[in-house]
Request: fold
Amino acid sequence: MKIAVLGAHGQLGRDLCQRLSCQLVPLTRAEIDLAHPNTIPSVLAALRPDIFINCAAYNLVDKAETEPEIAFAVNAWGPRVLAQACHAVGCKLVHFSTDYVFGLDSSRTTPLSEEDPPGPASVYGLSKLAGEYLVRAADPGHLVIRTCGLYGVWGSGGKGGNFVETMLRVAGQGKPLRVVHDQRCTPSSTADVASATTALIAMGVSGLVHVTNGGACTWYEFAAEIFRLSGMSADLTPITSAQFAAPARRPTFSVLSNASAVSAGLAPLRPWPEALADYLTERRKKIP
Ligand SMILES: NC(=O)c1ccc[n+]([C@@H]2O[C@H](COP(=O)([O-])OP(=O)(O)OC[C@H]3O[C@@H](n4cnc5c(N)ncnc54)[C@H](OP(=O)(O)O)[C@@H]3O)[C@@H](O)[C@H]2O)c1
Reply:
């Protein structure tokens, strides 16, 4: 079995590559640039993978508000060409999407299923939703996995970073932290989402599925748990999204129900605090 992974240097991509026991072809923007998709069909025709996993995305949620063209190019139009090229060579496309396809319904308080109508509140969410639809339309064998609040050890260094690292860095500098306490979701470990992805592939699951760690919290509660588990004291204050005033609107509630993945045979992912504890142990090995 030959599996190609685009975005192989991202936090989810790296964790996935480590977990795939197959003929692995890690790909980066140097081989396929989703913003310039004209080369995709020839790359796919030459590689002829059995499965193509797209972990690449334009993830700059706030910046997308002012540069929608590049967000849509990378998250929607590029994946469309990719899905068409996968279908042409008989390869299954595994594509990732986000809880930010929800958010318009601010009255929601129960976990969202794959059947719930999406309604993105941001350009980023809209571009990812467009990508989902285009992938699903172009490649009937697709697997689209919506996940949420990713953090992984490969996002713990370099230019990317992640929420956990930002919290630890700012608190380590002795600076105060004001973190939103009115956005509830499920922060998820890329290690766990990668393992779940390999399991879903092995089970031959297709279609749209939600995959996150268990439970839910606000970003403020997540930050408080990061500091508690790290034994750090931090000057941490809960604030509202209105006080934070980010350029892009985020969902107030985007907890994803994993029921459909579990009924397809996936073991439920562990609760988010357990995954966070493991992450903090792993990062200590990587960043002594
Ligand atoms: N991060 C989250 O909190 C979150 C939440 C829900 C869903 N997701 C989804 O989960 C997936 C993985 O996210 P992640 O956190 O692992 O992302 P990440 O660490 O930011 O990695 C994204 C990768 O995409 C690559 N990329 C960006 N633009 C590209 C382009 N034009 N052509 C080819 N590659 C390009 C980047 O390469 P360079 O290093 O060259 O830029 C990077 O390696 C994405 O689909 C994302 O939308 C993420």
Notes: The mean pLDDT is 95. The domain at 2-154+188-214+256-269 is CATH 3.40.50.720 (Rossmann fold).
